[in-house]
Amino acid sequence: MNLPLDWLTAVEGTAGFTGNRLNWGDLVIEQPAARLAVTGGRLSVDGLSGRTFGGQFGMTGGIDAQGDADFAFNLVGADLAEAAEGVYGVDPGTGILEFGLTGTSSGATPSSLIADLEGTGLVSVRDGALAGLDVAAVGLEIDRADDPLAFLQAVRAALGTGETPFATLNAPFEVSGGRLTTDSLRITTEPALGVGAASVDLVDGEMDLTVEFSLYAQPDAPPFGLSLVGRLSDPARRLQVQALQAFVAQRAARALSDRFRLEEAEPEPGPTEPDAPEAESFQPLPGASEAEDPPPPAPSGEVPAIPN
Fold first, then answer.
1. How far, in whole angstroms, is CA 205 from its chain's centroid?
2. Structure pTM?
3. CB-hemisphere CA count at 13 Å for 157?
4. CA distances for 24 relative to 53, 110, 147, angstroms
5. What is the pLDDT of residues 208-254, one digit of tens each?
6. Closest CA to 95 of 77, 76, 78, 80
7. SS3 284
8. Pairing verdict, β 68-79 and 163-176
9. C-beta atoms surrounding 156 within 10 Å
10. What share of the chain is helix, strand, coil (3-state, %, to 5)?
11. 34: phi then psi, degrees, rounded to nearest 5
12. CA 291 to CA 287: how far, in whole Å?
């Protein structure tokens, strides 16, 4: 559907409006208000505002009769789950969303304007929870893991169910040719720090996202990750835990080797030698008298007297 822009060359003037509800496709804006001006074949929007997805938004910008547009858009205090479901039909989790985008585009239809979009922006979420993964459970499994295969099964379960509460999620991004990209995704959770990169095709709704988590309580353990690739509404989930599994296997092998080495170092008990018999004390025979001391030696040159 082409945008009706020809009329901009035939009209000059200003206008303003307020209302209770404005529908644009699937987007619902409550309490909309705006100031509009048409001059020189260009429609300028000054201070378009309203409420959507539970938050407050504002926009300024304009478009001319040839479809060249520029704008600045921001959304503050919105519900992440409601916004993600309303725009792309996805469930990334919960939180308080703030979104800003400043850009330019050119096109005669809504889809061509998106495909030609160029700009920069920021996605920020606070006090939320990521759906479908439990990062804290991975840390617990590392603490008690002694079987790499069992550990892998436990990690797969942890990264496929549950949720991970987070304090902040920030992703400054760029948009070029209708594709949003970021290499500065940062997620702050209690057990770990997550960093990653993402690419989203805003026209086709395709995504490629990878995030790696480093556990605070296991600084020696390598990071583990999760990738989401495919349609935003149903991406394929790929775990990146090979390095972590190898770490657990090496730790288990070292523990086993240390135990064997300790057992070999302990001496085997030898035969016990019999105790030596206690020495018996000498007892004189009955009736025997103690021996008299021998006479002292005679002086030199004298012959000792022989007792009678």
1. 24
2. 0.78
3. 10
4. 14, 11, 55
5. 999 999 999 999 999 999 999 999 888 898 989 899 888 888 887 77
6. 80
7. coil
8. unpaired
9. 13
10. 20, 45, 35
11. -160, 155
12. 12
